Amino acid sequence: MRSPCNHGVETDPSGDPVNTAVPQTEDAGAAACAGPTDALGTSAAQARSAALEELIRTDPGRFRVLTGDRPTGRLHLGHFFGTLHNRVRLQELGVELFVVIADYQVLTDRDVADNLLQHVEELVLDYLAIGVDPARSTIFTHGAVPALNQLMLPFLSLVSVSELNRNPTVKDEIAHSRQSAVSGLMFTYPVHQAADILFCKANLVPVGQDQLPHLELTRTIARRFNDRYGAGSAVFPQPDALLSSAPLLLGTDGTKMSKSRNNAITLAATVDETARLVKGAKTDSERHISYDPATRPEVSSLLLLAALCQGRSPEQVAADIGSAGAAALKKVVTESVNEYLAPIRARRAEYGQDRAHLRAVLSEGNERARAVADATLAEVRAAMNTCY
Ligand code: TRP
């Protein structure tokens, strides 16, 4: 029956598809967890991710994935091999995919979100170029989905200030923030991220290590909401983290590849820009090329990059180069990256010709996300007895 809060909102089947899809403590949990479910414990999260992969293969239809990026610049190879690649893989396996372009989250560590429209369009271009299919997957900006943002208020009531205070990822971001004062948004954005995930009742979130505390908070919020307002039935699923197995790629300066450090090879870089960036990459003075991430991090990261592009192991790539030195290694890396990215870059250039299409993809995605968020908010209001 339609709830009294459901003001003319279609009860779209996609609004409520998977909230019971993955029993949290039954088969998925039992298969995955030998010990206690501690999403902060990486090994537990890894074990659970392995079990989830098995479930995804056998029954992709029970999963809805939500993942996303902040629109602060073009995506790079670190993003690609860390998460983007995985999104498309999940989509191709038949998992339903929601991708949020987290525009409000840009304001966590800066006063002004510069060139927002341009950054948003660049992200849509990157997504389309790598194979996110807007016919099957939903790309949206959370700023355009009011009902998603309205979930923030009840969610904030479910967490304590001390819980927000001890989030290690937020602490780290505050330490690296370029702002002199820490804003309320910086402290509370993990709660907003819970709204990004729970508005569509996603039950699977592909993440890197740094996002695990946010996912644990999302699970806490879902559980507390259900306990407090669910009257015996779960309004929200407790989403699982799907930990990326991809090793970390270093930037050309030997530190973590990052948009803000100017050390990244973007998906959109030209063949020549790629060659120049790789040429300037830090290596070491040892002529014999070997894969040893602990003692030769820069050389090893270049080998890894070439290996990921070639679909081989870094040891094999190293053996091919032997004692030919860093210049030969860089030649191999440049050629491998340029060859691997050629079709992605060609698609990117093609989509880039048609801004109207980009805007249509985004407005259709926003519309779909709004319908889903309206249905969820209606349920939340009914559960909270705030239907007037
Ligand atoms: N915080 C994420 C990042 O910086 C981006 C993001 C926003 C996100 N909302 C999300 C990721 C929801 C996963 C789920 O990369």
TrEMBL record:
SUPFAM superfamilies: Nucleotidylyl transferase. Keywords: Aminoacyl-tRNA synthetase, ATP-binding, Ligase, Nucleotide-binding, Protein biosynthesis. Coiled coil: none annotated. GO terms for molecular function: tryptophan-tRNA ligase activity. The keyword Transit peptide does not apply. It comes from the Bacteria. It is an enzyme of class 6 (ligase). Residues 1-35 are annotated as: Disordered. Its EC number is 6.1.1.2. Pfam families: tRNA-synt_1b. PANTHER family: TRYPTOPHAN--TRNA LIGASE, MITOCHONDRIAL. Belongs to the class-I aminoacyl-tRNA synthetase family. This is Tryptophan--tRNA ligase. It comes from Micromonospora humida. The lineage of its organism: Bacteria, Bacillati, Actinomycetota, Actinomycetes, Micromonosporales. The gene is trpS.
